[in-house]
Amino acid sequence: MADTPSKKDLEEHRQRVRDRFALTGGDDFRDYELLELMLFGVLPRVDTKPIAKELIARFRTLDGVIGAPREQLMAVHRIGPAVATHIKAIHRILVAVEREPLAVRPVLGSWSAVLGYLKRLLAEETEEQVRVLYLDRRLRLIADEVQGRGTIDQAAIYPREVARRALELRAASVILAHNHPTGDPSPSRQDIAMTKEVIAALQPLGVTVHDHVIVGRDGTRSMKALGLI
């Protein structure tokens, strides 16, 4: 086992990392080095390099680390509540950044941004959840709300509740989205049936269901692109 670095060695190493980042902007940094740097502020007296390497080894990618559930992060050695909260705050910042364009530009004209936002939001969730993106007449995002949460293999959604919220928000259309924690985003028979129920509930109100996007770690699937709606 490697010796624990002294306080002086640790401070000198951290300064070298900071100086290098300032010089290069992080272009030459490996993923674990970016995590190491990020952890400096919340673990001021700890060697964060082995922690960063363990995070990458466990969650595979930076996206996997940032999106990992809080309880899974805290299973990593030296990751306590404060560090887990810090990482999850970064995740929410990234979600907010990806959401911003959807509120000012028509979402159907920037579909890749929609998919990126939903994947960032849902891909690493361990519990299935259904979300509804409510859009105005110019196809801009009004609200994104959780409609239902479930077990690892099912989540409840209530078509009448979606209809009620659409009326309250004066939404002209919606996009449905939910995740498959198993990783495979292929739609199930239940997914197809649930989507048709929501379409039937919204149709009398003149509210269009543009798509139902299913998200998994293995990617996303559009039920519209698959010809299912």
What tags apply to this protein structure?
229 residues; alpha+beta; Cytidine Deaminase, domain 2; 2 domains; 5-stranded mixed β-sheet; 9 helices; 5 strands; 45% helix
Number of strands: 5
The H-and-E topology, N to C, reads as HHHHHHHEEHEHEE
The third-level CATH topology of the largest domain is Cytidine Deaminase, domain 2
State the CATH architecture of the largest domain.
Answer: 3-Layer(aba) Sandwich
Helix content: 40-55%
Low-confidence stretches: none
CATH superfamily of the largest domain: Cytidine Deaminase, domain 2
Number of domains: 2
Residues in β-strands, percent: 15-25%
- Tell me, what is the CATH class of the largest domain? Alpha Beta
Helical/strand content category: alpha+beta
- Shape descriptor: elongated
Radius of gyration over alpha carbons?
A: 21 Å
Mean pLDDT: 92
State the helix count. 9
Amino-to-carboxy terminus distance: 58 Å
Largest sheet: 5 strands, mixed
| Strand adjacency order, main sheet | 2-1-3-4-5
Q: What's the topology here?
A:
Elements: H1 7-24, H2 31-39, H3 49-59, H4 62-67, H5 70-73, H6 81-99, H7 111-122, E1 129-135, E2 141-149, H8 159-169, E3 173-179, H9 189-202, E4 208-216, E5 219-222
Structure characterization notes:
By secondary structure, this protein is an alpha+beta fold. The chain is 45% helix and 16% strand. The protein folds into 2 domains: 89 residues; 109 residues, Cytidine Deaminase, domain 2 (3-Layer(aba) Sandwich), CATH 3.40.140. The longest helix is centred in the middle third of the chain and has 19 residues. The chain has a 5-stranded mixed sheet, sandwiched between helices. The termini are far apart. Strand 3, helix 9 and strand 4 form a beta-alpha-beta unit.
